[in-house]
Amino acid sequence: MGVEGAGEAATRSGATIKAAIIYQHSGLERHQEVAGGLDELVRGARAKAKDKPSGADLVRDA
Description:
The protein contains two helices and no strands. By secondary structure, the protein is an all-alpha fold.
């Protein structure tokens, strides 16, 4: 591989790294969005079930 080939490989590698960083960042944002939605669901379910005994309570009292 000549000097030109090495420069071409570095350019390709740099583009790939840049794309990976962008993808990783967008993935993080999506993970945060999903986690926020799950948090809302869990908090809502806990609020509804606040006065009801849990499965552990039922087993303990049996």
